[in-house]
Design brief:
Layout lengths: L1 E4 L3 E3 L10 H14 L5 E5 L6 E5 L1 H13 L7 E6 L7 H10 L6 H15 L2 H8 L3 H10 L4 H8 L5 H7 L5 H11 L7 H9 L3 E2 L3 H6 L1 H6 L4 E2 L10 E2 L2 H23 L3 E4 L6 H7 L2 E3 L8 H22 L1 H4 L6 H19 L14 E6 L5 E3 L3 E3 L1 E7 L5 E7 L6 H4 L7 E3 L6 E3 H19 L3 H13 L28 H12 L10 H9 L3 H13 L14 H10 L3 H4 L13 H19 L5 H13 L6 H9 L53
Parallel strand pairs: 2-4, 3-5, 9-11
Antiparallel strand pairs: 1-5, 3-4, 6-8, 7-8, 10-13, 11-12, 14-15, 16-17
Helix pairs in contact: 1-2, 4-6, 5-6, 8-10, 15-17, 20-23, 26-27, 26-28
Length: 691
């Protein structure tokens, strides 16, 4: 063992820990500054005379250099070092053993250690400084000491992870911790997020719009309490006195609503402490006021023309690779500019019309909150009356009004007593509404248990409930087949599939639709033969299919499974055209499609074509109308963009599950050479959604 000056020590290439850890080394430097070097370094003589290479203890050496930089240690400070002979020891092996054979303290042990030092130093700030840690880190570990006994023991024993322990420590109320712990201890794969959500029930987060509106100072001044999650950001703090927060928010919003009502001259301004007014509209029974679109001003038209010209210029750059290579062309910046212009154009094309002055006394608006806690007026107007506005040829707006119909139609209340006393079916003596409700549930359960014994009747009933869209009258079951919400509307290019669906609908036996009563329609439906019922079932399921998965550019995996089972021949019902594809993707993607069917030689023939001409050429080629080699024509007639294929990815199947093979012999996604065609990297997003 020798004392060697810090200035003579260098990092060894044999040290297995080569990546610096600035945060850890900063904490370690304060610890060494407070207590000195508690563990020697392992070094070997360097080739350069008088210098040594550090094999074990590189982090400690770098931490000491930080102390020197702060001026709290001299560069010639003597460091205790164990000097080994490279001829007798494998330096890398020594370094690995020194780093690997080390047992870190558990979070529970850290917590108990901090408690010990708190007793000596008196506060967390002193302990944090002593160990070179942040005060929030120390506070977080000390919060673990306030875990309920069983939870702390589970952490110490390694039965729960540190993340789960932090989630339980988000509240200091032991009864809440233990309630959630009992609920989650037997859960499969419990998550910290789920635990925090269960603990947070009945509280507001620090970044809730109501909390942001009220402000922490006003809330605390009114007696509100805050539980801080020291393991997360301030946004995860919980305001546990929800009523106080809501009262303060209501006071603020009511004052603003009163001011806005006087300023706008509207009949009312209704404050809603939420980011939308859906529930409030339903409760108040108000009707939206539909105003005709406002005319475009000359200034707006001029600006729209300017935007269109600039967007065309940007599109030209995106399609011209040579233009992209020019100096000063920033594609990311152009893309941002394009999106900004597109949003501005949309706003200009949809000007908001103000409510005529003479009708302001009949309408109102809702005052809501943004996600940042700001009070804003919703743009739409609402009225207790039904206001109808029309615009004549001269642009003059006229309106009519009628009282809204009585809310709560009889159809929605059928079979349910609306008064304290009701007459039970088949009897004359009144019974209470509560008893009627209880009897109705018992009667329903008896029918359900009996239906189990007649699967044929159950199937008839299910198909009928799905197919009977003649009225909104209840069918006596929660089964229903709603129409999907398509992500695109308007003039969408058609294919052979739409004609097939229309023909299938025309061929359905609709005679059972004639009776007015739902029970009679069901009996009439039961008279259909099995083939007619099966046709109805196939049709109603077919037209219920969703186009894609939610709002993302993603397909339903089950659709790929269905398509593979059916061995769908997409190419027989859909071919790419200028309208449905080639006009919508860039030139590079069009040439990539040509490469797929004819190689680089075919693509080179049309590389110099303008985009519009290339689109028309592609349409002819892929429809089989162009004069080309027979093998190219064959591949063109079978070619599909990735977004139109039904392919099952490994992520669509559970691990270990065998892939579903189609009934045919050929794989749907294979090209003639047996390889799956890859999607061009720069295909336009609209046309390149993964199937």
């Amino acid at each position: 063992m020798q004392l060697i000056q810090l200035s003579k020590l260098d990092q060894s290439e044999d040290n297995v820990c080569k990546r610096p850890n600035p945060e850890f080394e900063e904490r370690l430097s304060f610890d060494i500054e407070a207590r000195g070097v508690l563990q020697n370094l392992i070094v070997a003589k360097a080739k350069k005379r008088g210098r040594f290479e550090v094999i074990g203890g590189g982090k400690r050496m770098r931490a000491m250099h930080r102390i020197v930089e702060r001026g709290a240690m001299d560069a010639d400070f003597e460091v205790p070092c164990l000097v080994i002979d490279r001829r007798e020891h494998n330096a890398s092996e020594v370094s690995l053993a020194e780093n690997f054979q080390r047992l870190q303290m558990t979070p529970a042990e850290e917590c108990q250690a901090f408690q010990h030092f708190i007793k000596e130093d008196g506060d967390t700030a002193a302990v944090a400084k002593r160990f070179g840690l942040t005060q929030r880190f120390v506070d977080g570990r000390l919060r673990l000491a306030n875990l309920a006994g069983p939870i702390f023991e589970a952490l110490a024993a390694g039965d729960i992870t540190l993340d789960l322990a932090k989630a339980y420590a988000a509240t200091d109320q032991h009864e809440v911790q233990l309630r959630v712990f009992e609920q989650m201890r037997h859960a499969w794969n419990p998550s910290a997020d789920a635990i925090r959500r269960m603990i947070a029930d009945g509280s507001l987060r620090g970044n809730d719009p109501i909390a942001l509106l009220v402000g922490e100072d006003a809330y605390v001044a009114a007696g509100g309490k805050i539980e801080r999650d020291l393991f997360s950001e301030a946004a995860d703090d919980r305001w546990i006195d929800v009523e106080i927060a809501h009262q303060l928010a209501a006071t603020k919003m009511e004052a603003e609503a009163e001011r806005l009502a006087a300023e706008t001259g509207l009949a009312w301004i209704n404050p809603v402490a939420a980011t939308n007014s859906w529930s409030a509209r339903s409760e108040l029974g108000v009707n939206p006021v539909r105003l005709p679109p406002a005319p475009l001003s000359e200034e707006a038209r001029t600006r729209i023309d300017e935007i269109d010209a600039r967007m065309d210029d940007i599109n030209a750059i995106f399609e011209d690779e040579s233009a992209q290579d020019e100096d000063g062309v920033d594609l990311d910046k152009l893309e941002i500019e394009y999106d900004t212009l597109s949003n501005e154009r949309e706003d200009l094309n949809n000007p908001v019309r103000e409510l005529p002055e003479e009708w302001r006394g009949e309408a109102g608006r809702f005052l809501i909150l943004t996600n940042k806690g700001e009070m804003v007026l919703e743009s739409d107007y609402y009225s207790e009356k039904r206001l109808s506005f029309e615009q004549d040829e001269d642009g003059n707006v006229t309106a009519t009004s009628e009282d809204a119909p009585t809310r709560g139609g009889t159809s929605s209340q059928a079979g349910r007593p609306s008064t304290p006393e009701a007459v039970a079916p088949g009897g004359e003596k009144p019974i209470s509404a509560k008893l009627f409700d209880e009897l109705s549930v018992q009667r329903r359960n008896i029918l359900a248990a009996s239906l189990l014994g007649d699967p044929g009747l159950a199937l008839d009933y299910a198909i009928f409930a799905l197919c009977d869209d003649r009225s909104y009258e209840s069918k006596g079951t929660s089964l229903k087949a709603g129409k999907p919400q398509d992500p695109a509307y308007g003039d969408i290019p058609q294919s052979a599939a739409e004609g097939i669906l229309a023909a299938a609908e025309d061929a359905l036996d609709k005679a059972w639709h004639e009776p007015k009563e739902v029970a009679q329609r069901f009996l009439a439906f039961r008279e259909l033969d099995d083939e007619a019922k099966a046709a109805w079932l196939s049709y109603v399921v077919a037209v219920s299919l969703e186009a894609k998965k939610g709002y993302n550019s993603e397909y339903h995996p089950i659709h790929s499974v269905l398509g593979s089972i059916l061995d769908v021949d997409v190419a027989a019902m859909w071919r790419p055209t200028s309208e449905n594809l080639f006009d919508r993707i860039n030139k590079t993607s069009c040439l990539a499609a040509l490469t797929d069917i004819g190689g680089s030689e075919l693509a080179a023939r049309y590389a110099a074509s303008k985009k519009a001409d290339l689109s028309k050429t592609c349409e002819k080629l892929f429809s089989g109308d162009a004069i080309v080699e027979e093998d190219v024509k064959e591949r063109a007639l079978a070619w599909l963009p990735e977004a139109m294929k039904f392919e099952i990815s490994t992520g669509d199947l559970d691990q270990g599950e065998a892939p579903i093979e189609p009934d045919g012999d050929d794989d749907l996604a294979d090209t003639d050479d047996g390889k799956t065609a890859e999607e061009p990297e720069d295909v336009d997003e609209e046309a390149a959604v993964d199937a």
